[in-house]
Amino acid sequence: PGYYGPKGLAIILKILTELFIRTGILTVDLCIPQSSSQYLSQVLVPETAIRLIAEDYKGISLNDAKEIMIDSVDFGLYVHDDNCEN
């Protein structure tokens, strides 16, 4: 998601999976018509990234944070590639 790149996406997904799926908080019934993993990756991961970006930028709007996420995809792919050791 945006400047967090594939590495950030993997970290966010792992944490949200632990918080919501492994604990049973996010159930199949709550996610219909999607599966819980689809809901997590298509809704919760992007929303988490938007809120983290807004926090990074100290109080910008969620709409502005979403624009930054969209505009910074190439940067994230380059800097936070999931194949990097850092």
Task: Give the SSE layout.
Blueprint: H1 5-21, H2 28-31, H3 36-56, H4 62-71, H5 73-79
Helix pairs in contact: 1-3, 3-4
Can you walk through the features of this model?
- With 86 residues, this protein is mainly α.
- The chain has one domain.
- It has five helices and no strands.
- Helix 1 (5-21) packs across helix 3 (36-56) and helix 3 (36-56) crosses helix 4 (62-71).
- The longest helix is centred in the middle third of the chain and has 21 residues, at 36-56.
- The radius of gyration is 14 Å and the shape is globular.
Question: What gap, in angstroms, lies between the N and C termini?
Answer: 18 Å
The major beta sheet can be summarized as: none
Overall residue-averaged pLDDT value:
91
Q: What is the number of E strands?
A: 0
Question: Helix-strand pattern, N to C?
Answer: HHHHH
How much of the sequence is in beta strands? under 5%
Percent of residues in helical segments? 55-70%
Unreliable parts? none
The 3D shape can be described as: globular
**Nearest-angstrom radius of gyration?**
14 Å
Total number of domains = 1
Determine the structural class based on helices, strands and strand pairing: mainly alpha
With helices defined by DSSP (H or I, 4 residues minimum), what is the helix count?
A: 5
